[in-house]
């Protein structure tokens, strides 16, 4: 199992958006309200990927990504937008559909 520095991502999200992390699973980190999620980059521990909810407005995406980028630069790492996602309820489970 690969070490993932969740505390570092938690601090970046908090600094950038004021949001707390509500859930983390494997390589994905879900902030409160799930307007976006952060994914660890398995090839570079100093890089992260960001996906936005499909309903998130383009101006809001840019604002959030700019804030995350600034917070990452303080931590000497980077983040890149990788697309969008939607959540689908399937019984007791929730599927994440990336697009």
Index terms:
2 helices; alpha+beta; 99 residues; single chain; 6-stranded mixed beta sheet
In terms of quaternary structure, the protein is single chain
Q: pLDDT under 50 segments (min length 5)?
A: none
Number of helical runs?
Answer: 2
Give the H and E element order. HEEEEHEE
- How far from one another are the termini? 27 Å
Structural class: alpha+beta
> Which percent band covers the strand fraction?
35-45%
Mean pLDDT: 94
Q: What is the number of E strands?
A: 6
> Could you estimate the helical fraction of the residues in percent?
25-40%
Biggest sheet features: 6 strands, mixed
**Biggest sheet: strands side by side, in what order?**
1-2-3-4-5-6
* Shape field: globular
What radius of gyration results from the CA coordinates?
13 Å
Describe the protein.
By secondary structure, the protein is α+β, with helices and mostly antiparallel strands. It is about 30% helix and about 40% strand. The chain contains two helices and six strands. It has helices at about 5-15, 60-75, and strands at about 20-25, 30, 35-40, 45-55, 80-90, 95-99. The chain has a six-stranded mixed sheet. Helix 1 crosses helix 2 (about 60-75). The longest helix is centred in the middle third of the chain and has 17 residues, at about 60-75. The N and C termini lie far apart (about 25 Å). The mean pLDDT is about 95.
């Amino acid at each position: 199992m690969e070490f993932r520095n969740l505390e570092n991502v938690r601090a970046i999200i908090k600094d950038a958006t004021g949001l707390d992390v509500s859930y983390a699973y494997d390589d994905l980190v879900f902030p409160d309200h799930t307007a976006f999620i952060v994914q660890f980059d398995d090839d570079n521990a100093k890089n992260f990927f960001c996906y936005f909810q499909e309903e998130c407005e383009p101006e809001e995406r840019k604002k959030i990504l700019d804030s995350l980028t600034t917070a990452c630069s303080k931590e000497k790492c980077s983040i890149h937008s990788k697309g969008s996602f939607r959540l689908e309820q399937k019984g007791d489970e929730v599927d994440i559909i990336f697009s």
